[in-house]
Amino acid sequence: MQTGQLISLALYFILMLGIGFYAWRTTTDDVSGYMLGGRKLSPAVASLSAGASDMSGWMLLGLPGAMYVSGLSASWIAIGLFIGAFLNWVIVAPRLRVHTEIADDAITIPDYFEKRFEDKTRLLRIISSIVIVIFFTLYTSSGVVAGGKLFESAFGADYALGLWITAGVVVVYTLFGGFLAVSMTDFVQGCIMFVALVLVPVVALTDVGGMEGLGTTLNAIDPNLTDLFGGVTLVGIISAMAWGLGYFGQPHIIVRFMAIRSVQDVPRARNIGMTWMGVTIVGALATGLIGLAYATQNGLAVDDPETIFIILSQILFHPLIAGFLLAAILAAIMSTISSQLLVSSSSLTEDFYGIFLRKEASQKELVLIGRLSVVAVSLVAIALAYNPNSNVLGLVSNAWAGFGAAFGPIILLSLTWNRMTRNGALFGMIAGAATVLFWIYTPVLANGATLSSLIYEIVPGFIVCGLVAILVSLFGRQPADTITQTFERARAARTA
């Protein structure tokens, strides 16, 4: 590792830990303060925190790599995600901010489900909590793996050392600073990602001869590379764009909507967030295409297309700036890990410990348990990550679909339809998750292929969950008057 890169990374880590220390001194010793920052996030922090925790290393590694291999047709997934994120801000954000506060100050998604439907059996809370803890532990593990591989491939460091450095810094600022630290570090990390995804493609474009040189080189390789519809079918486009459906059910993203300062701040936060997302996605797409042209013009061998951002950073920039650009990848990875750690910790604390083990626990005790839960989840994630080829990590690629299908329709219906019932939510959630699992793992096609080879599993999962939730609600008992009244109070508060 060059000295300049080492200095940049050291400064980045010091900044993250400094923010965590500030948040620790600022955060209150109650659960709402630790888990939701006291619902005081500014529009800018809430929006960039949601964006940074969403994108992870996919933004700087996966998307440029897909563009490098497939050309412009790989951008359909980005288009779907942009539309999904916009609808999430328009439909879910203002409603969830109000509903969770009126529903007896619900501070986790399982807590919201239970209070929204007055579920005395607590089945909704238990099932949704189990789903969150299991899948987010695996999700966190995948992020730690990405950090280990980054240190190994970009810096020549030991893979295991990379695991511990990545996880260690995240755990420290998350453990002490809680939601406020996670959100503030996400904001800074989002700014770093923004600068990196503008700087790298602009400098690289200049080096390949501008737009004219880029077009000439890509057309010489394959004219389909610049065709949005080149080599893709209608089903392929639907599958790619269906990634946008997942936004409605991602707990680590929508929890930002619960923490924003007021519902009046949502439009401003949406505008900031969507501008950030639009610029960074275009930058990531451009990095892949321009990187292909650069590699072709210079006879550069690229063994792994997903490393094209790293390669351009190290070749085109001074080591000090290259270190900053590589820190952008680490920022993307760490912002997602911290968010997932905190959501898992919140669920273990609020939805298990505080409900079933210590109902009389004080606020300080619950915050302590939350911090211990951060450590526990991170240790399990690190243990799983020690084998980067472990089969259990294959589950992570489907977690987005699992959350989207199990939670997405339930979140949408619970916020927009006062006729929805507790049984509708429960059976819809189970049906959506079961459909995704069936689609992924059941070899019903020729040669043992699964249905996910035909269309992305979130599409049938989302549809089945929504239909079951609606039908069970319509054919069941009417919601209690108190549930309807709470729903109408939330609607009135949002439109006031």
UniProtKB/TrEMBL annotation:
<feature type="transmembrane region" description="Helical">
    <location>
        <begin position="74"/>
        <end position="92"/>
    </location>
</feature>
<keyword id="KW-1133">Transmembrane helix</keyword>
<keyword id="KW-0769">Symport</keyword>
<feature type="transmembrane region" description="Helical">
    <location>
        <begin position="366"/>
        <end position="386"/>
    </location>
</feature>
<dbReference type="InterPro" id="IPR050277">
    <property type="entry name" value="Sodium:Solute_Symporter"/>
</dbReference>
<dbReference type="InterPro" id="IPR018212">
    <property type="entry name" value="Na/solute_symporter_CS"/>
</dbReference>
<feature type="transmembrane region" description="Helical">
    <location>
        <begin position="228"/>
        <end position="248"/>
    </location>
</feature>
<dbReference type="InterPro" id="IPR001734">
    <property type="entry name" value="Na/solute_symporter"/>
</dbReference>
<dbReference type="InterPro" id="IPR038377">
    <property type="entry name" value="Na/Glc_symporter_sf"/>
</dbReference>
<dbReference type="InterPro" id="IPR011851">
    <property type="entry name" value="Na/Pro_symporter"/>
</dbReference>
<keyword id="KW-0813">Transport</keyword>
<feature type="transmembrane region" description="Helical">
    <location>
        <begin position="425"/>
        <end position="442"/>
    </location>
</feature>
<keyword id="KW-1003">Cell membrane</keyword>
<comment type="similarity">
    <text>Belongs to the sodium:solute symporter (SSF) (TC 2.A.21) family.</text>
</comment>
<dbReference type="GO" id="GO:0015193">
    <property type="term" value="F:L-proline transmembrane transporter activity"/>
</dbReference>
<keyword id="KW-0739">Sodium transport</keyword>
<keyword id="KW-0812">Transmembrane</keyword>
<feature type="transmembrane region" description="Helical">
    <location>
        <begin position="392"/>
        <end position="413"/>
    </location>
</feature>
<keyword id="KW-0915">Sodium</keyword>
<keyword id="KW-0472">Membrane</keyword>
<comment type="function">
    <text>Catalyzes the sodium-dependent uptake of extracellular L-proline.</text>
</comment>
<dbReference type="GO" id="GO:0031402">
    <property type="term" value="F:sodium ion binding"/>
</dbReference>
<keyword id="KW-0406">Ion transport</keyword>
<feature type="transmembrane region" description="Helical">
    <location>
        <begin position="6"/>
        <end position="24"/>
    </location>
</feature>
<dbReference type="GO" id="GO:0015824">
    <property type="term" value="P:proline transport"/>
</dbReference>
<dbReference type="GO" id="GO:0005298">
    <property type="term" value="F:proline:sodium symporter activity"/>
</dbReference>
<feature type="transmembrane region" description="Helical">
    <location>
        <begin position="454"/>
        <end position="475"/>
    </location>
</feature>
<feature type="transmembrane region" description="Helical">
    <location>
        <begin position="161"/>
        <end position="180"/>
    </location>
</feature>
<feature type="transmembrane region" description="Helical">
    <location>
        <begin position="307"/>
        <end position="333"/>
    </location>
</feature>
<keyword id="KW-0997">Cell inner membrane</keyword>
<keyword id="KW-0029">Amino-acid transport</keyword>
<feature type="transmembrane region" description="Helical">
    <location>
        <begin position="187"/>
        <end position="208"/>
    </location>
</feature>
<dbReference type="Pfam" id="PF00474">
    <property type="entry name" value="SSF"/>
</dbReference>
<feature type="transmembrane region" description="Helical">
    <location>
        <begin position="123"/>
        <end position="141"/>
    </location>
</feature>
<dbReference type="GO" id="GO:0005886">
    <property type="term" value="C:plasma membrane"/>
</dbReference>
<protein>
    <recommendedName>
        <fullName>Sodium/proline symporter</fullName>
    </recommendedName>
</protein>
<feature type="transmembrane region" description="Helical">
    <location>
        <begin position="269"/>
        <end position="295"/>
    </location>
</feature>
